[in-house]
Each structure stands twice: as C-alpha cells, then as structure tokens.
Amino acid sequence: MLEIKKVRDLNMERSADESAAFVSAASGIAVVGSHVYIVADDRLCLASFNLADKTPGIWVRVFPGSLPSEHKARKKKKPDLEAICVLPPSKFAKHGALLVVPSGSKEWRFNACLLPLDQSGKIAGEPLPLDFSNLFAHLRSKVNKLNIEGVCVSQEKLLLANRGASTGDGNAIISLDLFKFLFQAYDTHQIGSQCYLAANEFQLGKVKKVALGFTDLCALPDGRLVFTAAAECTDDAYEDGACAGSAVGFIDSQFKSVTVSLLDTSQKVEGVYANPVRVAQKNGQRIETTELILVTDADSEALIASMLSTEIVL
Asked: For the chain, which residues score pLDDT lower than 70?
C-alpha cells in the first residue's frame, strides 16, 4: 500500500465567474510549468493554481451560463467535465493547448473544449468549443457503458480512459489518432469516428469486493501509462456511490500488462500527474522514481477536495 501525503486543500478565490470558495469535485489534473489546471465535474470553469505556492486558486471560465444550485437539478445540467490534458505544440497551436473532455455518460454530456496556451503554460485565449457527440455515439458500440474519466497524449495517440462499473466490466483505454483528432478539432470542431483506432479492456482488481475503475491516466516518457482508479460501489455511470478505496497503477506501452498498488486513503482519487523522473543510486543499483500529484473528488458540495502526493518506483 502506497503512503500518501497531503499537499494542500483546493481552496479558491471568489470571482464573478464562480462564487464557490473551494473545489469539491476535482476530476482531473494537468500541469504545465508552474501552472496547475484542475477540472471539476460540477462546474463550468477550470480551477487554476500555482504549483510553487499554496495561494488560493482562480476560476477560469470554460462554458457560458450558470448551473442550478440544487444537487439533482445541477447533476442533470452540468457538462460533467472529467478529464484534462496538455496537447503538444502543433501547427494549430504554437505552444500547445489544454483539452477538456466530458464523461459522455449521458447523451447530453458531449461538450468539450480547447484552451490555447502561451510559452509559459498560461491560458492565452478564449475556449474553442468541441462537439464529441459523434465520437461518443461510436464509442458506445465499443465499450460497456461509456464513462470517460481520463485523457492523455502518448506518442502519436490521444488516449481516453473509460471507467468500468463496480462489477469490473467496461474498463478500457481507447486509442485515437492524435493528428486526425487535431485536424477535426481545429477544422470542423466536431470529433467523429475517423480518429478512432482501438479499445483495450482491462481488469484492475477489487477493494473490499468492489472492482476498481479508471479515474485518470498520464503518460510517462517511455510510453508506459500511470493511472488512478477508484472502487466506487455503483453500477451506474450517472449515479455516485460509496468509495471503498483508491489505487494507482501502470500499463505497459503495448497494453499487455497491468500492475496496481492501493493508496493509503479512503478518499476517491480522480486525477493524476507524474512529475519528471528522478534517478538515484541505491546499493549500487540505479533507481528511478517519480512523484505523483493526485486530486480527489469529495462527492459533496459541502466538502473541499484535496491535492495529494505519493512517490513510486518505476
């Protein structure tokens, strides 16, 4: 079991865009330089933090409008933003861009967006809305109960993590052609099945008889994937359930092997970022480690989410 430590609470400055004083449902994390961007599945904004200090974050508007304050009504209207990653520099975006992806767990949850970055990793322009409805319609024939929870870039692919049910069915890594995705995103702003490559399913094990399901993923330089997973007691991609535990793990670059390590926390971990690899010598052997930055989903508007960390040997 991996020991975790608390880095900070995800407290926020109040603003005209969003009056919430903290993030309660952190669902994914991306880091560019000193900039940390977190998606919250119950907001129309991103939360932006400075990795170098613990000052309150600021809200960054992603979609216009407002959401109902009542929980059930909000759940029916929210875009359910679940995943975020950094797209590499390209002819479409000189310094890269943030990609924000919804779950697709309901047919109305298909609105994604791109946010251009400047050289330092700061958001440097207005969001570009993307329509994932056609892609998601295609993916519903490829996985059991679509519920996208993670996204990352690995080599020439854009990878999506689909979260399985508490039975263990439906966990999958979906591979998209990165160039075709970018062309669709910047040309028509509608993402279709043309960029789809494959879906690889996985069994991640159980915690207290509840199967682990993907909640995020991040690519390592050698092509391996680091993922987070939570054992949430629900078979419904829409309804939340009690969390029996969380884990991190690795998938090799060929999608053939999986290793899983439980985390020493009862919190539902929903986001992961791997810091640069560190190399050390121990007893004459070369040891590579990396620090994982994690974020949690409290599943309650009244509770503040956290940023955590743990260190793993690669």
From this structure: 16-17, 234-240
Specify whether the CB–CB gap between 296 and 26 falls below 8 A.
yes
Cα Rg of the chain, angstroms: 18
286 forms bridges with which residues in the sheet? 281
For residue 138, the SS3 value is: helix
271/230 Cα distance (integer angstroms): 11
Q: How far is CA 199 from CA 159, 171, 242, in A?
A: 10, 10, 28
Residue 284: the pLDDT is 81
pLDDT at 236 (0 to 100): 57
Look at the pTM and tell me if it is higher than 0.85. Answer: yes
Q: What angle do CA 94, 95, 100 make, to 5 degrees?
A: 110
**CATH class name, domain 5-313:** mainly beta
Q: Give the three-class secondary structure for 73.
A: helix
Per-domain boundaries in the chain:
5-313
